[in-house]
Design a protein that fits this description.
Layout lengths: L2 H25 L1 H10 L3 H15 L2 H30 L8 H37 L8 H15 L10 H8 L5 H18 L5 H15 L9 H5 L12 H9 L3 H7 L1 H6 L6 H12 L1
Helix pairs in contact: 2-8, 2-9, 3-8, 3-11, 4-5, 5-14, 6-7, 6-11, 6-12, 9-12
């Protein structure tokens, strides 16, 4: 390798390393939330943490919507192929008029069937979308993932009696928390970063990264709580009573349901039209 080429390779390597480092610092979700949370006061930190977990709990539903879109796109491609084949058969070479009429009739039948199937596909997809976009729609064990947040919010607002666990009810209650707008802004920024970095990568890596994010985030408000409470695993294992310090410890001790729920992304990514169960479900939707 000549000195000039060696210098060029070294320069390109250094530039790539610098660019990667800069991108990582700006877009890595783990680094981003660490930086954002480090500047927050106790109440805002606790609120932002709950907002972050609330938004993370909705990621499997977003994944399901995207998966449905991709499956229907593949079905639509098959429909388009059927229509194109029918059109290609219309080459204008027939032995006689009767043959022409017979072939044309068959072509039109195929095209009509393809158009009807296309309409059914779009209708079925829109129906599934409408269902998934409702806040009371549950994808797998969503309610389990929301339990910790629901308990904390209900306690902070001193709500009495049995509470309904749903996205709608929790979102409404969270809006009454200290600095909710700021906390939700941080949560949305984190989710945007996830979409830009981890989301379209390997499924296992995505789940591992989300698990790490949840575990890391659960400790980001520790500096606002006395160390004795953090070391004592029995401290605040029950419902907190309107105290943000207790909220921080309670959340810290209860990340498991949300972490487990992130694993459902793996099941969603296996949802494929070639699998008997999934294919059957899609077929049923098309037949309605």
């Amino acid at each position: 390798m000549t000195p000039r080429i060696a210098l060029l390779v070294m320069c390109l390597s250094l530039c790539a390393t610098a660019a990667h480092g800069e991108m990582s610092a700006e877009t890595d979700p783990l680094a981003l939330i660490s930086d954002k949370f480090d500047k927050l006061e106790k109440e805002t930190c606790a609120t932002a943490l709950m907002c972050l977990w609330f938004e993370l709990a909705q990621l499997p539903r977003r994944r399901m919507i995207e998966r449905i879109d991709s499956i229907f796109e593949r079905f639509r491609a098959l429909v388009n192929i059927s229509a194109e084949r029918a059109m290609l058969e219309n080459d204008g070479t027939f032995k006689n008029t009767n043959d022409a009429r017979e072939v044309l009739s068959d072509i039109y039948t195929k095209l009509e069937a393809a158009q009807k199937l296309e309409s059914k596909l779009e209708g079925a997809k829109q129906k599934l979308h409408a269902g998934l976009e409702k806040d009371d729609t549950v994808v797998f064990n969503l309610n389990n993932a929301l339990v910790t947040i629901s308990i904390v919010v209900s306690a902070l607002l001193e709500k009495q009696g049995l509470q309904t666990v749903s996205l709608t009810s929790i979102r409404k209650d969270m809006q009454n928390m200290t600095n909710y707008t700021q906390g939700m802004g941080i949560a949305n920024t984190a989710v945007k970063s996830i979409m830009e970095t981890w989301w379209n990568g390997n499924t296992a890596s995505l789940i591992n990264n989300l698990t790490k994010l949840i575990k890391n985030s659960s400790t980001l408000c520790d500096k606002h709580v006395k160390q004795w409470y953090l070391r004592n695993k029995n401290a605040y294992q029950y419902v907190p009573k309107g105290d943000y310090s207790k909220v921080i410890v309670f959340i810290r001790n209860n990340p498991d349901e949300l972490i487990n729920y992130m694993g459902t992304i793996g099941s969603i990514d296996k949802f494929d039209e070639r699998q008997p169960g999934a294919s059957g479900n899609i077929t049923k939707k098309l037949q309605r």
